[in-house]
Amino acid sequence: MRWLPREYVARLERRVYLDRGSAYELAPRSSNKPPAQGSRVRASQSIDGGPIALDPRIIPHIMGDPLREGYIEILRKSDEGLIAVLELLSPTNKRGVGRGEYLVKRDELLHQPVHLVEVDLLMRGTRMPLRQSLPDGHYFAMISRADRRPDCEVYSWTIRDPLPVIPIPLETPDGDVAIDLQEVFNVTFERGPYDQLVKYHKPVGLPVAEDLQNWIDAQLAPR
Questions:
Q1: Helix or strand or coil: residue 160?
Q2: What is the pLDDT of residues 15-26, one digit of tens each?
Q3: Of the candidates 118, 175, 171, which has an alpha carbon nearest to the alpha carbon of residue 141?
Q4: Which of 137, 145, 138, 133 is nearest to 109 (CA)?
Q5: Long-range residue pairs from 169-178, CB within 8 A, at least 24 positions apart, any chain
Q6: What percentage of residues in the chain have a pLDDT greater than 90?
Q7: DSSP β-ladder status, 139-144 and 115-120
Q8: Residues 165-203 pLDDT 10s
Q9: How far is 55 from 119, CA to CA, in rounded Å?
Q10: Peptide linkage before 51 cis (omega within 30 of 0)
């Protein structure tokens, strides 16, 4: 990150866990009923009364899909001490089994002397838990400073607004580093190239009022 002072370094990390939730929901419940006629599970006994040999029934395992999520750590260069963690929330952070996994890791960070920055650019899913309701807005940046907890700075904006500049806290007395989210988005979009990968013509059914949906449709219309 070119915005950081020389005393710090940013490192991209990856979190991997298994999403077993959807697989378990699809799995049939076990039954104590006897096997139906023609079942593949059957027993046979040898003529001399020896051991019973069983024919197996082939049933696949439930195997959770691996979920991989990236996040950024800001470290003190001199001793690699962890200063701040930057999270761009994903759909799995906000619903299902992945949400529970993320909330556990989030709570661990909140009990350490580490700053936590969460950026939520998703309009669906459950928002991160706070003691009061979030301000009006579609998108949020939550800056949780280690030395000001339990207070959390919440920045909000709407889909009509450009992405803002947000502060990334460092150690005292270094102060904050300002990150221009719109610039980050523009660079990422161009290098993607997401203008070719994202199907903007496909309706997504965002949870917004009709007038705002009309505005979104107008922005996505071919020009």
A1: coil
A2: 876 665 554 444
A3: 118
A4: 145
A5: 169/84, 169/115, 169/117, 169/143, 169/145, 170/4, 170/5, 170/8, 170/74, 170/83, 170/84, 170/115, 171/76, 171/83, 172/147, 174/5, 174/7, 177/1, 177/3, 177/4, 177/5, 178/3
A6: 52
A7: antiparallel
A8: 999 999 989 989 999 999 999 999 888 888 788 877 776
A9: 55
A10: no
Residue matched to tokens 């309706």: 203
Q: How many CA atoms lie within 13 A of 31 on its CB side?
A: 6
Tokens 């903007």: give the residue.
Answer: 200
What is the Cα–Cα distance from 167 to 177, expressed in whole angstroms? 6
pTM score of the predicted model: 0.77
**Residue 90 backbone dihedrals phi, psi, to 5 degrees:** -110, 170
Say if CB 87 and CB 13 are below 8 A apart.
no
- Of the candidates 88, 145, 91, 73, the one whose C-alpha atom is nearest the C-alpha of residue 119 is 88
Contacts of residues 208-216 at CB distance under 8 Å and 24 or more positions apart, as own/partner, are 208/123, 208/138, 208/159, 212/159, 212/160, 215/160, 216/159
209 CB-near residues (< 8 Å, 6+ apart): none
